[in-house]
Write a structure and sequence with these properties.
By secondary structure, the chain is α+β, with helices and mostly antiparallel strands. It contains 23 helices and 15 strands. β3 and β4 form a beta hairpin.
Length: 505
């Protein structure tokens, strides 16, 4: 073979090798190289970022896929529910439950799903409050599951009272209410104020979240049973080598079910919003806007008059203003009056045109313990009315230092702000029960002498008047002994004006 032939042969082999190398560098269609995958499809990308069904002739063809465009390398979010429910759902963020807590949550979730009528009633009651609660939760920077907490606490009943005397939408106990400066007096109980109680509850929850290093499950549990309770259970769990998370705690039944119940309700709401099937689980349409307006009061006003001027029922007015327990709205309390948005203008116009009295009640402080009968004589009212409006049980005295509602005489006799914080009503039984052993032939004089030896002083006439249905006989007698403050008044002496000691409030 000549030298020229060998050179040509080498050049051919080199050309063939280059062609084969070029073929190996060309990727097969539909099988991207690893380099392409790493740049174009992040390991944790949502399926919506990569593929979506193509619509053709109005139908979805699942086998025909196309890539969604991305804006500046970010995923295009799915369409959002613009309602208040969508806003609430979008702000949820509490970590999922684990272990036995998750099992409890599953049981509560099934309970809620089987009772859409229950949820419908609960959230119909929530309608006047829910938007404001969502606003406050967002402002506080808390997860939106918290906005559903009143559904668990009180079923959104604004005057709910538990067996432990927790009160209002957020079920504040009296010591916790005082700790978070919720005012309580004769004319105002801010535990029942939707606005004041919501803000106090969120301050408490934010403080608890910080205490437990951002763990909302522990914060919610502490809201139910107190931080001292949770701290003790965390210490016990850590002593056993556990982390001290919610699922590690051996809590009482109520608190153990409390957080799973809220998380179950949150999941029902989230699933209903995501699927667009809110009505099926009982979530009514709730406007994503404030539907009520708070108006300032310059003068004390009767609730009945406010309702009439606004064109609402008394029941509706009280549902919007549950913090006012008396028939009188006191201007100095600074709460004003909350009315439906579409009734506020009507109320303002009607109030300007009103020429009659604004209030039929005022308040007085009782300096000495007295009876309702004495107060009725003093103020020209009837006993039944005074008992009803002041909620004084039959057979009870009004204790010294108490404030009572009485019929108003002067139209300018409004309750002063300086006296408002001390306006409380305390009562005590007018009688005490006492068992006395009587001998044969005893009359009321001898019985009174025996009573005075043990619980006097009381006269025979007073004792007889208090026990008109008792027939004297030998043996044990069960007697009602008038309290010292009640005795003179119960026997008919009319010295109420001189001994009642009433002061202006």
């Amino acid at each position: 073979m000549s030298r020229r032939t060998r050179i040509l042969k080498c050049l051919c082999w080199l050309a063939l090798g280059g062609l084969l190398a070029a073929c190996q560098a060309v990727p097969v269609m539909g099988t991207p190289s690893m380099e392409v995958v790493e740049r174009g499809t992040p390991a944790f990308a949502s399926p919506l970022e990569v593929e979506t069904p193509v619509l053709r002739d109005g139908l979805v063809h699942e086998n025909t896929l196309t890539t969604m465009p991305k804006a500046a390398g970010k995923a295009v979010p799915p369409p959002q529910d613009a309602s208040l429910w969508g806003r609430l759902r979008g702000g949820m963020g509490i970590e999922p439950l684990q272990g036995v807590a998750l099992q409890r949550m599953t049981a509560h979730e099934a309970w809620y799903r089987q009772r859409p009528e229950h949820l419908r009633r609960v959230f119909e009651r929530a309608r006047p409050y829910l938007f404001d609660i969502v606003e406050e939760v967002q402002t506080a920077g808390l997860p939106m599951e918290v906005a559903l907490l009143p559904a668990v606490e009180s079923a959104f009943v604004p005057k709910a009272v538990s067996s432990a005397q927790a009160d209002g939408l957020w079920q504040f106990m009296a010591p916790t209410a005082a700790r978070f400066e919720l005012r309580r007096n004769l004319f105002l109980d801010e535990r029942r104020s939707p606005q004041a109680a919501t803000r106090a509850a969120l301050r408490y929850l934010a403080w608890l979240r910080e205490r437990y290093n951002g763990d909302m499950q522990l914060a919610l549990a502490a809201y139910n049973c107190g931080e001292g309770c949770i701290d003790a259970h965390i210490r016990r769990a850590k002593a056993k080598g556990l982390a001290g998370r919610f699922e590690d705690l051996q809590l009482n039944t109520e608190t153990a079910q409390y957080v799973p119940r809220l998380m179950a309700l949150s999941k029902v709401v989230a699933d209903a919003v995501d699927s667009g099937a809110r009505e099926a689980v009982g979530l009514p349409d709730v406007p994503n806007a404030l539907t009520v307006r708070r108006l300032a009061l310059q003068r004390d006003m009767d609730k009945v008059l406010v309702a009439r001027l606004a064109g609402v029922s008394l029941a509706e007015l009280e549902a919007l203003n549950p913090q006012h327990p008396k028939p009188l709205l006191v201007a100095s309390a600074g709460q004003g009056v909350v009315l439906p948005e579409d009734k506020a203008a009507r109320f303002e116009q009607a109030l300007l045109a009103h020429r009659g009295p604004l209030a039929s009640w005022t308040a007085r402080r009782v300096a000495r313990t007295t009876t309702v009968e004495a107060l009725a004589r003093l103020f020209g009212s009837d006993v039944a009315t005074l008992r009803s409006v002041n909620r004084i049980a039959s057979g009870h005295l009004v204790v010294a230092g108490s404030t009572v509602l009485i019929p108003r005489v002067s139209k300018w006799d409004d309750v002063a702000e300086a006296k408002l914080h001390a306006a409380v009503l305390r009562t005590a039984p007018a009688y005490t029960a006492l068992r006395v052993k009587a001998s044969k032939g005893w009359g009321w004089t001898e019985v009174a002498r025996e009573v005075n030896r043990r619980a006097g002083p009381v006269t025979a006439v007073e004792l007889k008047r208090a026990n008109q249905k008792v027939k004297l006989k030998a043996g044990w007698l069960r007697l009602l002994v008038p309290a010292p403050e009640a005795r003179v008044r119960l026997v008919g002496h009319s010295r109420g004006a001189s001994i009642t000691g009433v002061e202006h409030v």
